[in-house]
Amino acid sequence: MNAPDIEPAFEPQLSRPSRAAVMWRRFRRNRAAVLGLVLFAAVVLAALLADIIAPGDPLRRVGVPLTAPFVDAATPLGTDQLGRDILAGILHGARISLLIGVVATLISICIGILIGAVSGYFGGWVDDLLMRVTEAFQTIPSFVLLLALVAIFGSTIGNIVIAIGIVSWTAPARMVRAEFMSLRRREFVDAARNLGVGNVSIIFREILPNALPPVIVFASVVMATSILMESALAFLALGDPNFASWGNMIGQGRAVLRTDWYCTVIPGVAILLTVLSFSLLGEGLNDILNPRQKK
Amino acid sequence: MTDAPILEIQDLRISLPAGGDRPYALEHLDLTVNPGEIVCLVGESGSGKSLAANAVMRLLPEPHVHVSAGRILLDGEDIGAKSESEMRAIRGDRVAMIFQEPMTALNPQKTVGWQIDEVLRLHTDLDRKARRARALEILGDVHIPDPASAYNAYPHQISGGQRQRVMIAMALVLNPRLIIADEPTTALDVTTQKQILHLIKEMQRQHGTGILFITHDFGVVAEIADRIAVLRLGELVESGPAEQILNHPSHPYTRALIAAVPALTPPAHKDLSAAPVVLRAQGLAKTFAARGGLLSGRRQAVTAVRDLSFELRQGETLGVVGESGSGKTTVSRIVTRLLDADRGEVVIGGHDLIHADRRQLRAMRRDIQMIFQDPMASLNPRKRVVDLIAQGPIVHGVPKAEAHARARELLSLVELSPAAAERYPHEFSGGQRQRIGIARAIAMQPKVIVADEPVSALDVSVQAQVLRLLADLRDRLDLSLLFVTHDLRVAAQLCDRIIVMQKGEIVETGPTAQVFADPQHPYTQALLTSIPGRDWQPPKLTDAA
């Protein structure tokens, strides 16, 4: 052989930790993220165990109105002015908050990915058109738009979830568009085109997996804001009155805020911790998915 | 001026953070630079040559990477003992640095004049007028045409070669004792590279500056070095006078490196005039219309390729050579229809690729495949190697299991272990990734492979291996190659015929041996005389293995 072989041959490393193990190790390094995971697990647990710990309709009357917490063993977190159990409200409210968080986020991220991907990949007039639409949405404050949508279509839980999804897709769309605009110029996209791969396949199978990490991290932010939006709606008495939601509880407890603080503070703390858990989780996901950002 | 060495590096060791692939970036490095001497520090990527330069400037990313043993003496003073403010006074004043990429090393927001002025402001007491005069003088010294207008220009307004001249002017303005040049010509075209090397030599002669010149290119070394030090994975394997190392290297690694430098002797001319034409390009043209927005004025359209025709025969390798801006990359993209041409046709197997509709185009993609320049960017980082290679055949209807089995066979054809199939691209070195790229191209069993600078991102020794693999596969599979490159040494290795392009047009074409021996067009002549180290023939080292 004339030319020298300086480059060593490829040798597979045998004992290599799996991908999941590596990710978990990165995640664990961030203590705040672990706290977020614990809080999130607690919320999920509350939602799952609601019917076991507090069976029956959480909106029914169970005791003397305005019992303070830790007074009556039957209602450990007290009751509101209609005599409804606050603990039951918190547990059942966790379901609504999670439902809204997950479904509304899915809706907004899906719309965002679709519009952002098409816009960023094709560019030109498609991009111009879609971005003008996006800007139209962005010029209206999202909460005002949400109020309008709920006022028009009625405040059932389904409508609220869809409306929240509709008002929060613009930021993910812009993010995905920016990722696509830089990724579509990469050589691996040319390589795929050169193999005869179609546009749809390139968008979803080649580029999207590479564009996803920042979007997943952002999804945790969208989830947190969705929960806050629902609470704000309920606070304004525009929530679905047929479900115990944390926002509803705060909205009704507001009337007795000065005398019986616990009616508002307890659900308020629940919202705070849930939103906090999503933010911290997002941070942890960022560490997992963009390991190079941190030294 | 005394004859005492300007820079003495004694037994230097640089530690890397724990958990890396090796504990020290550099170990037992001894190096001296005397006044008026150019010392070349040669090594491949990962050899620690740039870290050595940063250590001299005390610009290591401490505390992760730090000097853990040894001394660096500048004019007999230990740099390690200096305080940070003393170091600031030394940098730029007594030691200056020239970087690889002048576009990123210059601040895009400030004019050239401002940036030279800043150096003077920080290190001298000159008043504004005197500083301006000095800046204009140094710009004149580095042969920038019209220094006054360059003084007011922003970095993006001047050419790459001129930017590097500005960098050199900034380095020289205070007459430093030592200049560290970290691959200063790697990003430049050959003709510009020749001028810059010439300039560095001229400046060094005039000012008696010592230069530590870091490079991976033995051609450049042959052109410029007085003494050479060869680094390999942080170890100094050999050092000595240039003549001795270049022509009588003693260490096996140096011998291997020098043997890997492509010789400027084209392959024997193969007569292929009887072979069938597999690809015929006729009258290709492409103009990039600058897209003006509503508010931004229209910019001038750029003609990348105008009226280009050529033929590629079965089993032939046709080189497309030119400098940046010659349109050679545009040619590779038009021929594969990654870019739509304005005019012309590309006929493969009786069909015109340029005017094919979507269905025809998809079928024709089988026949023409591409190997890309950047092996990192051209492989989707989230796909396994086996999926990357099998993707093309699967898209064209080969059952998945069959395509995967074939992909594994191809891995051994490109000399990779079958275990590589389940890995992701980032687990491979640059040369290995390029092999994966080659496997992906031949998985489609194409008639023609277009290779766009396939080895320019690789180290010389790896370059030689990949070129050898390409030549071997071409002969075994009877492929035709359209080989786009800026590197005439590489072109000489592989190409049967070459096309020389300038500003979107073919200025010369012919069998490689003939073009190299007797270039007709002045541009070709300029290109050939600019090849660094063209007077140095790498010695025939028969035992290098």
Automatic annotation (TrEMBL), chain A:
Pfam families per record: BPD_transp_1 (PF00528), OppC_N (PF12911)
InterPro entries given in the database record: BP-dependent_transpt_permease, MetI-like, MetI-like_sf, OppC_N
Keywords associated with the record: Cell membrane, Membrane, Peptide transport, Protein transport, Transmembrane, Transmembrane helix, Transport
GO cellular component, one term: plasma membrane
Membrane spanning residue stretches: 32-54, 96-122, 143-171, 215-238, 259-281
PANTHER family xrefs: D,D-DIPEPTIDE TRANSPORT SYSTEM PERMEASE PROTEIN DDPC-RELATED, OLIGOPEPTIDE TRANSPORT SYSTEM PERMEASE PROTEIN APPC
Keyword Oxidoreductase in record: no
Protein's GO biological process: peptide transport; protein transport; transmembrane transport
Compartments in which it is found: Cell membrane
Protein's recorded name: Peptide/nickel transport system permease protein
Family (UniProt): Belongs to the binding-protein-dependent transport system permease family.
Main localization of the protein described in the UniProt heading: membrane
Stored SUPFAM superfamilies: MetI-like
Keyword Cell membrane: yes
Membrane topology recorded in Swiss-Prot or TrEMBL: Multi-pass membrane protein
Superkingdom of the organism of origin: Bacteria
UniProt lineage: Bacteria, Pseudomonadati, Pseudomonadota, Alphaproteobacteria, Rhodobacterales
Domain named ABC transmembrane type-1: residues: 94-282
Organism name: Paracoccus alkenifer
TrEMBL record, chain B:
Pfam name, any one: ABC_tran
UniProt xrefs under InterPro entries: AAA+_ATPase (IPR003593), ABC_Ni/Peptide_Import (IPR050388), ABC_transporter-like_ATP-bd (IPR003439), ABC_transporter-like_CS (IPR017871), Oligopep_ABC_C (IPR013563), P-loop_NTPase (IPR027417)
Keyword field contains ATP-binding: yes
Gene Ontology CC annotations of this record: plasma membrane
Membrane topology annotation: Peripheral membrane protein
Keyword Membrane: yes
Cellular compartments annotated: Cell inner membrane
GO molecular function annotation: ATP binding; ATP hydrolysis activity
Similarity annotation: Belongs to the ABC transporter superfamily.
UniProt name for this protein: Peptide/nickel transport system ATP-binding protein
Lineage of origin: Bacteria, Pseudomonadati, Pseudomonadota, Alphaproteobacteria, Rhodobacterales
